[in-house]
Amino acid sequence: MVELAFDKMNNGLLPAIAQDFRTGEVLMLGFMDRSAWEKTVATGKATYFSRTRNKLWTKGETSGHHQVVKEIRIDCDNDTVLLKVEQLGPGACHTGHRSCFYQVVNGDDIKIDGSPAFDPQEVYKK
Amino acid sequence: MVELAFDKMNNGLLPAIAQDFRTGEVLMLGFMDRSAWEKTVATGKATYFSRTRNKLWTKGETSGHHQVVKEIRIDCDNDTVLLKVEQLGPGACHTGHRSCFYQVVNGDDIKIDGSPAFDPQEVYKK
């Protein structure tokens, strides 16, 4: 397996960008420890390390909105991952938006771009 | 100025993705502390915090390959920045490639996508 520079970051977590493989839209950024990286490569489903829950997190394990990995790129320093993914379901963001980057900075204000594509209370209910 | 969640990361550094505003190509990922964020917003030129040099770093200050910020987005947690930029000059990467993400993971191997767009020894010479 390709080795990344996990030791470079104090916490062993490398940023991983998920980008829509068709449109180029940046969907989200998560972090990967070595286990997340190895699981992503082995399974072809994007898996991150959740800093809030302090555990591995395969995107879509609750929502069903998996990210099918179409291509994996790493940067010049081997310390950032770029996943080109097919985002299953209506969106990647826990707020219901397709992309997590729906807040556009407009001077001192924030403009919301677009509307939620799904109702998170429906998707994430127990 | 829009406030980001700098306190969320132990080191106060938030990841910032630079994406070509025309093509959607992801060019690089850097980190921003509060000063880098404020300088980027104020000047319209992408400015990062260099972890290796431990100081603010306006992209292009050595190479001339500035990144002119066309749009700033932040994610749902206010802890990741997405810059849509016009990349001046032939490329963003210190290796001479247009994008830092020129390494494609192919099983256990890495395939190099494309050729350098400039000679870094020429661009970064004193």
Describe the structure.
The structure is a homodimer of 126-residue chains. Chain A contains two helices and eight strands. By secondary structure, chain A is mostly beta strands. The longest helix of chain A is centred in the N-terminal third of the chain and has 10 residues, at 34-43. In chain A, the strands form three sheets. A four-stranded mixed sheet of chain A has the order 2-1-6-5, covered by helices on one side. Chain A starts with 13 loop residues before the first strand and ends with a helix. Chain A has helices at residues 34-43, 120-123, and strands at 14-20, 26-32, 47-50, 55-58, 67-74, 81-87, 103-106, 109-112. The interface between A and B is large, with 38 and 38 residues.
From the structure above, extract its key features:
homodimer; 126 residues; mainly beta; four-stranded mixed beta sheet; two-stranded antiparallel sheet; 2 helices; 11% helix; 36% strand
Topology:
Two copies of one chain form a homodimer.
Chain A: E1 14-20, E2 26-32, H1 34-43, E3 47-50, E4 55-58, E5 67-74, E6 81-87, E7 103-106, E8 109-112, H2 120-123
Parallel strand pairs in A: 1-6
Antiparallel strand pairs in A: 1-2, 3-4, 5-6, 7-8
Quick overview:
Chain A is mostly beta strands and 126 residues long. The first copy, chain A, has two helices and eight strands. The longest helix of chain A has 10 residues.
Mean pLDDT of chain A: 95
The most extensive contact between chains is: A-B, 38 and 38 residues
Termini Cα gap of chain A = 36 Å
Class derived from helix and strand content of chain A: mainly beta
| Helical residues, percent of chain A | 10-25%
How many helical elements of chain A? 2
Widest sheet: strand ordering of chain A: 2-1-6-5
Order of helices and strands of chain A: EEHEEEEEEH
Structure summary, number of beta strands of chain A: 8
Shape of chain A: globular
Rg over C-alpha atoms of chain A, rounded to the nearest angstrom: 15 Å
Unreliable spans of chain A: none
